[in-house]
Structure formats: C-alpha cells, structure tokens
Design a protein that fits this description.
There is one protein chain. By secondary structure, the chain is mainly alpha-helical. The chain folds into two domains: 68 residues, DNA polymerase, domain 1, CATH 1.10.150; 137 residues, Rossmann fold (3-Layer(aba) Sandwich), CATH 3.40.50. 47% of the residues lie in helices and 9% in strands. The strands form two sheets. The chain has a three-stranded parallel beta sheet with strand order 3-4-5, with helices on both faces. A two-stranded parallel sheet has the order 1-2. Helix 6 links the parallel strand 1 and strand 2. The longest helix has 19 residues. It is globular, with a radius of gyration of 18 Å. The relative contact order is 0.14.
C-alpha cells in the first residue's frame, strides 16, 4: 500500500508546507501545479523539481534548510491529528487477517511511523519502505520491489516466496499506478487524489476503500490466471 493519499489524508498538508517553504525562496506554488506535477514525489524530489522548473539553483546549505523547513511546517500542522480516509482502518485490519501487508511510500519514515503508531495501524504492516530506503521514486518500481523483497525476507521459511504477479498495490497517484505495473504487480487505484478517469491504467479503481471487499480483489487474480 501507499501511505499519503491512501491511508492518511494529508496531501493538503504536504502541499501547504511545500508552498510556504518555496514561497520563502521567491517561488509561487499553486495547488493545481502541485497536484499535476509534484504530488507523487518525496520532499527532496519535489523541491528539486520545483526549483528546476523555476530555473532556481540552491546551494547545498539552502537546499537542506528548505527541506528542514518543509518538514517542520508539516509536523507543526499535522501535530497529533492524523486524518485517515474513510474505511481505511477497517480495510487494513481485515486485509491483515488474510495477507501479509507492506507499505511502500515516498514519505519519511518518521512521519509514517508516527502516524501509524498514533492511529493503531502499525501492527498490521510487516514491512515499511520509506523515502530513505530507495533512490528512484515512483513511477520507477524500486520501492514496490524492495517492499516485496523485505516481505519475503520477513516471512522467511514460514511460507513460499511471493512473486510480483501475486501482489496487489493500492495507490492514489498516476505515477504510483505506473510504478506498480512496472513492478509486475496488479494495482487498485483509489480516487482520493485524482479522478477515476485519470487512473484507468490500474486494474481496478474505486472511490474509497470503504466500498471494497476482499473477495472483489481476489477476483482480479482469478481473471489474470
């Protein structure tokens, strides 16, 4: 599963924090541009892309200071309030009773762990792959393949090796869907961040996880067989 935009409804907080950060650099970041161009990126990739598009070069010191500022603004805003999408907690709890769950996200590990611990969802994930764990973000498949590698290592001899074609990724972004497919995995997209008509390359789309039943997802693999 992805994290931001699938589990935690905090993309507006990330946008506001990045908008205010780059404003201090003399850059105007609109919500439209953020959702269209930068939403799938982690903080470093996002800042780099924004500066590149605006023909601004930062010294290493200013670059790291900007990243720290963005993280500070996000942390101050999210505080102890971690807004989950409707139905996601129940979906994760149900799914974890039947399948080993892994999380692959471009968010920082600290942000992920804090939110999952605070909402009681941490215990359901055997593996968490965060921004610090890979170099190439989505639409590259690296994060998904790393999550699968770690998941197989985690379950060890208790089960046979899980293959990419047996995995289902739940995503909310176009790049996330493309990354999942590039990894050879099936993908269900929820339209939390983009309208369903923009996510049609996924094997399945849904408005919310609250409307999804596990037997519906199993049917995706029966159709592929």
């Amino acid at each position: 599963m992805d994290f931001n935009g699938v589990i935690l409804n905090d993309e507006p907080v990330h946008f506001a924090a990045m908008r205010d950060t780059v404003a201090e650099l003399g850059i105007t970041l609109t919500k439209e541009d953020y959702w269209k161009k930068y939403l799938p990126f982690d903080d470093r990739q996002c800042l780099d892309a924004i500066c590149r598009d605006c023909s601004i070069r930062l010294s290493e010191t200013r670059h790291e200071a900007a990243l720290a500022r963005k993280a500070q603004l996000y942390k101050e805003t999210i505080s102890c309030n971690f807004p989950l999408f409707a139905g996601v907690a129940q979906f994760i709890e149900n799914a974890a009773q039947h399948y080993p769950l892994a999380l692959a996200s471009g968010a920082k590990r600290e942000e992920i762990e804090t939110a999952l611990d605070s909402t009681g969802l941490r215990r359901y994930f055997l593996v968490i792959v965060a921004a610090e764990d890979f170099v190439r973000g989505k639409p590259h498949p690296d994060s998904f393949l790393l999550a699968l590698e770690q998941l197989n290592a985690k379950i060890g001899s208790t089960s046979r090796t899980i293959r990419p074609g047996e995995c289902l990724v739940i995503e909310d972004s176009i790049d996330g869907v493309n990354g999942a497919l590039a990894a050879g995995m099936a993908c269900m997209a929820v339209s939390n961040s983009y309208p369903e008509n923009m996510l049609q390359t996924a094997n399945m789309t849904a408005a919310t996880l609250s409307e999804i039943r596990l037997d519906t997802l199993r049917a995706l693999f029966e159709e592929k067989a």
